[in-house]
Amino acid sequence: MVMLSHYKNYNPSIHKSAFVAKDAVITGDVTIDEESSIWFKTVIRGDVAPTKIGKRVSIQDLCMLHQSPNNPLIVEDDVTVGHQVTLHSAIVRKNALVGMGSIILDGAEIGESAFVGAGSLVPPGKKVPPHTLVMGRPAKVVRKLTEDDYKEMERVRKSYVEKGHYYKTETDLGLDF
Question: Which GO terms describe its molecular function (predicted)?
């Protein structure tokens, strides 16, 4: 059962083309733009500051998104957020990929087309440069991205837009808006 709920005077705003799994929890000041997908068991609480999710973003299974006071969470267009990621009051720039199990903390900024390797910890205030691969705990730049990296990031991004469309139109596992 999906849980969409207000928090005080704020209600989630979800574009009609987005896929939201029925067992996701979304509360408060949360905006989800077109063709984005919010997958199974994900929690997005907009009860401290706004959360803005752009176009064609996938927030995969078991993710947790939250904020600190006066510090919104912003996920720009065409971002992939892997399974079981925690995003907390960070900025993820367009075309980035955050690998499975990563934790991105307050004030961190993931640069445009950056790739955060699975299981990484991006500490508060860390700026990940655009077009780089970062990995580790704490995350450190490993190298510049290659053409193969960009192709794989694009493949994943497109596959989740397609999966979102399929699950929204061909199954009863998502919400109807």
Answer: transferase activity
User: pLDDT tens digits, the chain, 177 residues: what are they?
Assistant: 558 898 999 999 999 999 999 999 999 999 999 999 999 999 999 999 999 999 999 999 999 999 999 999 999 999 999 999 999 999 999 999 999 999 999 999 999 999 999 999 999 999 999 999 999 999 999 999 999 999 999 999 999 999 999 999 999 999 887
How far apart CA 60 and CA 132 sit, in angstroms, is 22
| CATH number for the domain harbouring residue 61 | 2.160.10.10
Which amino acid is present at 82? G
Looking at the domain assignment, is residue 147 inside a domain? Answer: yes
Burial 23-32 (b: 16+ CB within 10 A, else e): ebbbbbbbbb
Q: How many domains does the chain have?
A: 1
Burial class (CB in 10 A: 0-12, 13-18, 19+), 54: buried
Residue 173 lies in a domain: no
On whether residue 126 sits in a domain, the answer given is yes
Query: How far apart, in whole angstroms, are the C-alpha atoms of residue 117 and residue 135?
Result: 5
